[in-house]
Amino acid sequence: MSESLYRPGLEGIIAGQTAVSSIMGGLLYRGYPVEELAVRADFESVAYLMLHGELPNPEEACAFRGRVAAAAQLPAEVAAMLLKLPAATPPMDVMRSGCSLLAHFDPDTPDNSPAATLRKSERLLGQLATLLGAWHRRTQNLPPLPYRAEDSFAANLLRMIRDDTPSPEETRAMDISLILYAEHEFNASTFTARVVASTLADLHSAVTAAIGALKGPLHGGANEQVMGVLAEVGSTDLLTEVGSTDRAEAWVRAALTAKRKIMGFGHRVYKDGDPRAAYLKPLCAKLAAATGNNELEQMADAIEQIVRAEKRLPPNLDWPSARLYHYLRLPVPLYTPLFVVSRVTGWSAHVMEQHANNRLIRPEAKYVGPGRREVGGKAER
Q1: Which of 62, 131, 257, 357 counts the highest number of beta carbons within 10 A?
Q2: Residue 217 near residue 318, CB atoms below 8 Å
Q3: Residue 40: how many CA atoms within 13 Å on its side-chain side?
Q4: Whose CA is closest to 233, among 295, 173, 283, 177?
Q5: What is the pLDDT of residue 340?
Q6: pLDDT at residue number 351
Q7: % residues pLDDT > 90 (the chain)
Q8: Residue 319: which residues within 8 A CB-CB, separation 6 or more?
């Protein structure tokens, strides 16, 4: 293998072709700018776009919403499993295990045909949303709340978690966050799904593996760590007698001096800024004002300005989305599982694409161990 082909982390290496999304010159979902989709579409339409390749007409959108709602009820055996898990089980582990268990009760699991995988993808979308809501209720010793066919996907998510009727503004905020998280080319979890799919494993196997990849703090888990940063800055005693903006500056400068990594900033691909973060920032500010969180938003803005100025690192999507979920009164441990509920659409699209034009993904490695050695006899060892 040529030395010039080696890049740590495969950075800059083209590992495959896709028609699902592009990140060159902005994020496009099947050719549509994600910002335009966030303005003119809802999450169900974007999910349909991911899975079917085109935006739905009104009749297709209605039928799709009905199929997702009909599939959202968990098999009784999977629901019973939730009662047997320790209450302290991390929600991401529940999502991973739950996805694997769902495979045992899906009639299409062994069928990798395009039609069967599409059916499984639609079912998983509804089931993973219900799984997340049911697990959160389980940790509170409360029964799960059913998915309502008359409500949107975003409204169902909020209600099944919070047990209240979200406002139109809250529902739209959740809807937009789901759209922005739905797909992002060959990121770590998507590439994991494609590697698994390239062995001709089934959809549930690929998505289960992808959830495992998303759990890592350098990928999906980063949005939870963002709230840890904001909580630390908000409670810091560096300058207790000054306002949040001054506390933020003192904390950031201390963190930079200590060479700490500040989660929510920088991106492997978007060197000039994540377009999703730029789009979500004004929505965060609006929701902060509506929910009495202006001080937190101002503190976050101060942190962003200092990190930009000192490190030239713009925020990524995790920076505003963590605050958005906080303003929506969602528990921090659910932030990454919410990512799962959205991204399963992108993963499924990539699995179908991989199966449609498959070649086993098997890269080479650059060996850096000892040269050839002789084993020798036992006496010589």
Answers
A1: 131
A2: no
A3: 8
A4: 295
A5: 97
A6: 98
A7: 69
A8: 226, 264, 265, 277, 300, 304
